[in-house]
Design brief:
It is found in: Mitochondrion outer membrane. The chain has no helices and 13 strands. With about 130 residues, the chain is mainly β. It has a four-stranded antiparallel sheet, with no helix packed on it. Strands 5-6-7-8 form a four-stranded antiparallel sheet, with no helix packed on it. Strand 9 and strand 10 form a beta hairpin.
Length: about 130
């Protein structure tokens, strides 16, 4: 999930590859984007909230123009290298290429995480 910088919108992804953008003031579905063939595991708004970046288990990263909901002149899609895929799922498992590598006990699970290439950063509630 990801919040827009003005906290008006929340984006969430589904296992079916669909991105849902929610209007937080009304609680209603603002927009749906169907652009991935597998689950969406990372989402982030651009600082100006015009673009939404989504990353999926189908090894694609997409930048969506939220004004149109499609990839266009202001957005793009490209495939990520398939040799390394890092995720945190299955109740606390860090996985590399879908293989369980490290289990995190409840007190060590991150509140958020970011991946940059082959580096995984974990953000804990205690800082």
């Amino acid at each position: 999930m990801g919040f827009s910088s003005d906290s008006r919108l929340l984006a969430s992804g589904t296992y079916e590859g669909i991105v849902c953008v929610w209007d937080l003031a009304t609680g209603s579905l603002y927009q749906t984007i169907d652009g991935h063939s597998e689950w969406v595991d990372s989402l982030a708004f651009s600082p100006d909230n015009r673009l939404l970046a989504t990353c999926s288990a189908d090894y694609t990263l997409c930048l969506w123009n939220l004004a149109t909901g499609v990839l266009d002149d202001f957005a793009m899609s490209f495939s990520l290298p398939m040799n390394l895929y890092i995720s945190i799922e299955d109740i606390g498992w860090i996985k590399i290429n879908r293989e369980r590598i490290l289990w995190l006990p409840v007190e060590s699970r991150p509140r958020l995480f970011k991946i940059n290439g082959n580096t995984l950063a974990l953000g804990h509630a205690l800082g």
